[in-house]
Amino acid sequence: MYKVDTKARQLIELAPKKISELGMKERFDLEEWVEKSPRILGEDLLIIGKEVPLPSGLRVDLLGIDKHANLVIIELKRDESGPAVEWQAIKYASYCSNMLRDEIFARFAEYLQCDRDDASLKVEEFIDSELEALNKSQRIILVAREFHSDVVSAVLWLRDFEIDIMCVRLRSYVDDDGDLFITPEAIIPLPEASTYIKGKEVKAKESSLFPAWSSFSLERGTFALSELEQRWKATLSRQTELTPRFVRLIEILLSEDRVFGREEIRQKLFERGVGIDIGQAGRYLSNLSQFLTKKSNPHLRQVIEFVSEGGHGEVKDNYRVVPEYRTLLTHLLDDWKKKNGE
């Protein structure tokens, strides 16, 4: 690594230094740097926990969420990786794979020292995917100054089996003034090959639009009017941050007896106070669309129609209330507003 002396028009070679040689610690220095600036790992990550305890008594150095709602296990080594860091991280990932959304929100709330609803909202605002996708998959990022050849071999083999694991090398340098510089470098996968690799993975996953774990469904309910009403009342009585947003969607669909496009709904949601900007309103609409396609909600699809390309996570469009249920939905909406002081 070189420092540029612009006045003298020359390069000054910086001396490589191990972090341990500088008297710095893995947990109290390196971990703090990455926690505060996760972008150094090459992408936007939301850190939701540090030294996260697991049932085994082990601790995850840093736990994060990426833009696609994957849980990201970050394992840090100050200098050399050692010969088995990948196995250590795999154990952590196996425990984290069982975390439910509520547990993730609770851990994040504890990390932020805020309430669970605030933590949930921060996650919802950060991710580009729908909230239901949270922790459907896990990723591993290994960070070290140098990686043992055994680790490199194991990581490459694991990636062949679609385990999302990567190695980021952080090297440190010191100049003549004693200033410390850190340079990040993703070595597995190489940045130049990452688009190709991800393309192969997406193609493999497209072979099954409806995996066994999916809670996605387009099946419409056929409930009698009395049961349909009771199911809707139960849905509207849910004490979650999604319910008032769902009410705003219903208001829009009931405002006129016609089809509403996705972009129009997004704009109208924002005008009704859903989201701090139009982009966030769109993400909230994605969450509402996901809610409409849950297997457990055929009663919602009985009343609200929409067009879908047919797969989990696909864009929904052209929403409308089925005409024969407009009176029922209007009555339910009025009851909700009275109970909630609107």
Q: Would you give an account of this structure?
A:
25% of the residues are buried. The chain has 2 domains: 2-205, 3-Layer(aba) Sandwich (Trna Endonuclease, Chain: A, domain 1), CATH 3.40.1350.10; 225-339, Arc Repressor Mutant, subunit A (Orthogonal Bundle), CATH 1.10.10. Strand 5 and strand 6 (71-76) form a beta hairpin. Helix 3 (101-112) packs across helix 4 (116-126), helix 8 (242-255) crosses helix 10 and helix 9 (262-271) packs across helix 10. The chain contains 12 helices and 11 strands. The strands form 3 sheets. Strands 3, 4, 5, 6, 7, 8 and 9 form a 7-stranded mixed β-sheet that branches. Strands 1-2 form a two-stranded antiparallel ribbon. The protein has 342 residues and is an alpha+beta fold. It has helices spanning 26-36, 85-96, 101-112, 116-126, 149-160, 191-205, 225-236, 242-255, 262-271, 278-292, 298-303, 326-339, and strands spanning 2-5, 10-13, 15-17, 45-53, 59-66, 71-76, 138-144, 165-174, 180-188, 304-308, 316-321. The chain is elongated and about 75 Å long.
